[in-house]
Amino acid sequence: MQRKRLWVHSTHRTPLSLHPGRSLASWAAAVAGVVCIAMGVLLAGGPDGSADVGVVPAAVAPEPAMGGTVPVAVALPGRNVSAPVVPTGTTPDGALVVPDPPTTVGWWSPGALAGATSGTTVLAGHVDSAAAGFGTFAVLRRVGVGERVELRGADGRTLAYRVVARRQLEKAELPADLFAHGGPPRLVLITCGGRFDRTTRHYTDNVIVYTEPA
User: Fold this and answer.
1) What pLDDT digit, counting tens, does each position of 58-67 carry?
2) Residue 171: helix, strand or coil by DSSP?
3) N or C: which end of the chain has fewer CB within 10 A?
4) Residue 93: its pLDDT value, please?
5) What residues have CB less than 8 Å from 100, skipping those under 6 apart?
6) Is the peptide bond before 101 cis (omega within 30 degrees of 0)?
7) How many CA atoms lie within 13 A of 127 on its CB side?
8) Which residues contact 180 (CB under 8 A, 6 or more apart)?
9) 166 vs 15, 51, 126, 147, 188, CA distance in Å?
10) 56: helix, strand or coil
């Protein structure tokens, strides 16, 4: 039973950016400036009480934030499964390319890096194949909320995530926001599910597991 690719409507992959005229922060700064001018006028007529007091604390440079990393392996410790991860993309007609064999998982490289501070990191894998049997992501159909998922990055870090939801949807209903470049950081795992159509040689559904940084 040869398994086909997951389908993505690539025309919805990139969200539109909104450009509001003036931010709330800029209005707040303007109001604060008016208040400071008014207070300065009031204080100018009072007694001089502006002598320096106390000790100014030394500024401490913040630790640099760790950036994202290319994922090279994924594991679900509670299910005793793991797999190597390789970069992948989409075909010209919008199909998400899923690597063979089913024991290898693909990372959608146009999306977020593992451990990035925003955006969705998307991993996809075959549920099975006639030649190799069950794939690593065959367990996704049974994964529950709270289970742990780990990604190992190319920089050696292990990044932990917690499952928050699982959905099974028809392939045509695959949410476009899975491929959003913005929003809170999350990891999404995708595989095939539902009924296998022997005529089309496709599964009818996708299984989607949503996780957040643990």
Assistant:
1) 554 444 456 8
2) helix
3) N
4) 82
5) 126, 129, 132
6) yes
7) 24
8) 15, 119, 120
9) 23, 63, 17, 11, 10
10) coil
Tokens of 158: 């292990």
In the block, which residue shows the tokens 């990191």? 121
Q: Report the DSSP beta bridge partners of residue 129.
A: 133
Q: How many residues does the chain have?
A: 214
- Both tokens of 7, joined, read 């389908």
Q: Which H or E element spans position 27?
A: helix 24-44
pLDDT, tens only, 123-161: 999 999 988 999 999 999 999 999 999 999 999 999 999
Whether residue 43 is predicted with pLDDT greater than 70 in this model: the reply is no
Q: What is the DSSP letter of 65?
A: P
User: How far is it, in rounded angstroms, from Cα 110 to Cα 114?
Assistant: 12
CA distance 172 to 208: 13
Domains in the chain, CATH or no CATH each: 6-14+67-213 (2.40.260.10)
